[in-house]
Predict the structure of Radical SAM core domain-containing protein.
Amino acid sequence: MQRSGQMEKEAVLYERLPNDKVRCLACARYCEIGKDQIGLCGIRGNKDGKLMLFVYGKVAAAHIDPIEKKPVIHYRPGTKIFSVGTTGCNWLCKYCQNYDLSQRRKVEGDDYSPEELVRSALDNKCHGIAYTYNEPTIFIEFARDCGVLARNHGMFNIFVSNGYCTPESVNMMKEFLDCITVDFKGNGEQKFVRRYVGIPSSEPVFETLLELKKTDIHVEITDLVVPQVGDDLDHARKMCKFVYDNFGPEMPVHFLRFHPDYKMMEFEPTPVKTLENHYDVAKKMGLKYVYIGNVPGHKYESTYCPECGKIVVRRYSFDILEWNLDESNSCRFCGNRIPITGRLDKDYREKRFQMVI
């Protein structure tokens, strides 16, 4: 397919300030950017008193993969996703596995108009588009234009987000977004995020979740548990209490295993026992659907019926091995309704991995 060359585009989420300055409203950093300067993310900058999105139409990575890889497991199970990302990020995670994209402060990538991106997803028989690899809110105007078109063609849209958003960005999400995973790091503990993420606190993430609660967007929560420095159970308890108090017992929560990368190669992978301790904290708090991720073959990859205790969805990594739900997504053993949106896709056994860029 011949690609149409893309150029930067004026952003929507910003306000003008005196002396040709602008304030970006895409994320909770609220960067005030002088003329000819760039925001911390590296891809939104001030050009002649206007905030420009320099990566509009620049896709730095694109893959086809299972929705379960996001991880999203209570929404449209078994579907195939067209996952895309750009360069840049609003966080500075020292352990980032996508650091070659997220910490690259250059405008690079293949040219894709929204129409071309959606057409590529359709040609590859994908059911939805995920905006991922780096923080999607920093390129939300491009994601919005793609997402609206995708919906018009019967596809859904997913953000894999750090949740460091604003009321303005959540309001824009309502125009096109169907599902979001909000990723806590180190249980959201302040010392951890200051040292290893480069933000003052996780409070904006909690605020974003409250904004998302006002929408119809499906939400799942992940928490990257980092050994020694981001695995305090008291902070895990605080996070789980927030989830339970504000979203109830049915919100899916995933505790993810850390693997050493980027500037944290000296750390060991998270002990499985540490993840299981986090699982126990969440269950004792009353959360019904708690998962352990990045540990292929672990029993808590699967979904258990909270009434009878039997496995209703058996998983191995990103694959679904067993489906024990009826046509209404109720447990076949006891009839309890399981809060999963959509039926298991008929092609879930097909290959769902493919590199595009």
Observations:
- Residues 9-53 form one domain.
- The longest strand covers residues 218-225.
